[in-house]
Structures are given as C-alpha cells and as structure tokens.
Amino acid sequence: MATTLSADLVRARVVHADDAALAALIDDALAFQIGLAMPALFRAEARIKAAFAKLDVVAARVLYQRLVAPAATDRVACRFARLVRGTELLGFLRDARRVNARD
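Above: the chain sequence. Below: its structure as tokens.
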C-alpha cells in the first residue's frame, strides 16, 4: 500500500507539471462555451480528451480526483469546474482509466 501511495504522489507531481498545458486547453473550451461556438467547443473538448487519453492509469486517477473535488487553490480543477460539459469529460477520463487498466 505504501508503495502504491508513493507512486501516486510521484505521479501527482508529474500531473501538476502538465497543469499549464491542461489549463490552456480548458481556457480554450471556456472561451468557446461563452461564445456558443459549438463546433469550436467540440474541437476544444476533443483536445482535452486527447490530453486525458495520454495519461497512464495512476495519473488519470489523480487528475480525476482533483477534478471531482476541486480545491480552491487548484487552478486547473477550478477552471474545469466551470465547463458546462465537464461531466461528460469526467466520464471520458473515468472510462479511459478503466480501458487503460484492462490493456
């Protein structure tokens, strides 16, 4: 258990290192959401899904927990919480973990 927890913490640091890129993708989706440009919003969401799909199981689990229960100091999670279709993206992240675990 301690080894798994340590691995999760190490992976969490890696996920946080990618926060700037993920924040930029979320900001794009937020901008299109406000303008009601649905095709552009769908493209922005597809880029977020592509970023989620690149995560390994541990990183996906850590990110999922961050996004489900956003801390006030977590800028990525707080931005993500403002997405209208964030629930769908969370479902994708949750399912991607499951698919990745089976492989």
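Helices lie at 2-17, 19-35, 38-53, 57-68, 75-81, 86-102.
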